[in-house]
Write a structure and sequence with these properties.
336 residues, alpha+beta, Immunoglobulin-like, six-stranded mixed beta sheet, four-stranded antiparallel beta sheet, 16% helix
Length: 336
C-alpha cells in the first residue's frame, strides 16, 4: 500500500469517527425529563423534556420514545426537531390539557392517564438509557396547580425534585401556568366557587354556591335584595327590576333594597337636577353605544313618551336638546 492509499484510509477512518461522533451528538442524548403534571383523574397531564446542557444540535429525537413503566404507555417521536436545541423544551400533553384556554400548545399529544399518579417511572429513550425519573405514591401533586420539577440533570431515575406551580413550556418557548383543580359545586348548578375549568361551565364563578338558582347565567328574579345573576347588583340596582318605564321618574335603591321612584326633570339624563351640556353629552355617548352610570340606557331613553322604546336614537338626542331648551315634551311634573 502506497503513502497516498494510507492517507486515504486514515482520512476515511477519521471521517468515520467524526461522523459517528456527530451521530451520537445528534441523537438527543442531553434531553431530560424536567416536569411532570397531572390532575386528580389523569385527564389533564403533561410531560416536559428539556435539553439540559446548552447543546444546539440535540435534534435527533425522531424514533425515540417516552414511556411509563406503570401504565405501559409509550409515545414515539415522529421526527426530529429543528433549529438550535440549546435549553429548549419539548411538551407532551393530553388533549384535555390542550383544550384549556390559556395552555401553551403541546408539541405532541399523549393519551389521558399516560402517567400513573400513584407512582411511576417516566423514561426518555429507555433503549439507550438516556434519561428517566421515578416518583413514589403520593409524590406527584394532583391538586391541579402544582407539578414535579426535576432539578437534577444526571441521566438517572432518582434526580432530586421540588413541588412548584406548573410551568408547561413548548418548543416555541410558549409557557403558562394552568389551573386544573377539581370543580367545587355545592349546589349542583354547574358553576363552582373556585371557577376552575373542571366545572361544567368553566371558569365562571358562582357567587352563592348554596343556592342553585343563583349563578352567573341566572335570570334576575326581582324578588328582593338577592343578586341572582352574580353581576354585583341587588334587585333595586337592576334596570330590569327597578325601572317603572317612566321618563319623568328616576329609580333608586331605598332602605332595605326597596326601589324608590323620584321625580326627574325632562331631559335630565344624568339626574343631577338640571338640564345642561352634560346631559346632551350623555345621550350622545349612549347613541354611540357607550353607557356609564348614571348615563344608563333607561336614563337616556326619553322618546317616545312616557317610557322610551328601548333604544337610543336621534329622537332621544332631540329630547335632551328640548330639555336643555326648557321644552317639557312629556309634561314631567318636575319640569323644566
Amino acid at each position: 500500500m502506497n503513502g497516498k492509499s494510507c492517507a486515504r484510509v486514515g482520512l476515511a477512518a477519521s471521517m468515520s469517527v467524526l461522523i459517528a461522533a456527530g451521530t451520537v451528538r445528534a441523537a438527543g442524548h442531553t434531553w431530560r425529563v424536567t416536569e411532570l403534571f397531572s390532575n386528580s383523574d389523569g385527564s389533564i397531564q403533561f410531560i416536559e423534556l428539556r435539553e439540559c446542557c446548552g447543546f444546539p444540535n440535540e435534534f435527533g429525537v425522531g424514533g425515540q420514545v417516552v414511556t411509563s413503566d406503570a401504565t405501559g404507555s409509550s409515545y414515539m417521536f415522529p421526527g426530529n426537531v429543528a433549529g438550535s436545541t440549546a435549553l429548549r423544551h419539548i411538551l407532551l400533553a393530553t388533549a384535555a390539557f390542550a383544550a384549556l384556554p390559556n395552555a401553551p400548545t403541546p408539541d405532541h399529544i399523549i393519551p389521558a392517564g399516560f402517567i400513573n399518579i400513584g407512582g411511576d417511572t417516566i423514561s426518555f429513550a429507555p433503549k439507550f438509557n438516556l434519561d428517566c425519573f421515578t416518583f413514589a405514591n403520593g409524590e406527584l401533586p394532583t391538586d391541579g396547580t402544582l407539578s414535579i420539577h426535576v432539578t437534577g440533570i444526571a441521566a438517572s431515575c432518582d434526580d432530586p425534585f421540588t413541588l412548584e406551580p406548573n410551568t408547561p413550556t413548548n418548543y416555541a418557548w410558549d409557557t403558562a401556568t394552568i389551573n386544573a383543580a377539581d370543580c367545587v359545586d355545592g349546589d349542583g348548578d354547574g358553576y363552582g366557587i373556585t371557577g376552575h375549568n373542571g366545572c361544567p361551565n368553566g371558569f365562571a364563578i358562582d357567587c352563592d354556591d348554596a343556592v342553585d338558582v343563583v349563578h352567573p347565567n341566572a335570570t334576575e328574579m326581582c324578588d328582593g335584595a338577592i343578586d341572582h345573576d352574580c353581576d354585583g347588583l341587588d334587585d333595586c340596582e337592576e334596570a330590569a327590576c327597578c325601572d317603572d318605564d317612566d321618563t319623568c321618574t328616576q329609580e333608586q335603591c331605598g332602605i332595605g333594597g326597596i326601589c324608590e321612584s323620584m321625580a326627574r326633570e325632562y331631559g335630565d339624563a344624568n339626574n343631577d337636577g338640571a338640564e345642561d351640556i352634560f346631559d346632551i353629552l350623555c345621550v350622545l355617548d349612549g347613541f354611540a353605544g357607550v353607557f356609564n352610570v348614571p348615563c344608563t340606557l333607561t336614563n337616556l331613553d326619553f322618546s317616545p313618551c312616557p317610557g322610551g322604546d328601548g333604544a337610543i336614537d336621534i329622537f332621544d338626542i332631540l329630547a335632551a336638546l328640548d330639555g336643555f331648551g326648557g321644552v317639557n315634551a312629556c309634561g314631567c311634573p318636575a319640569g323644566p
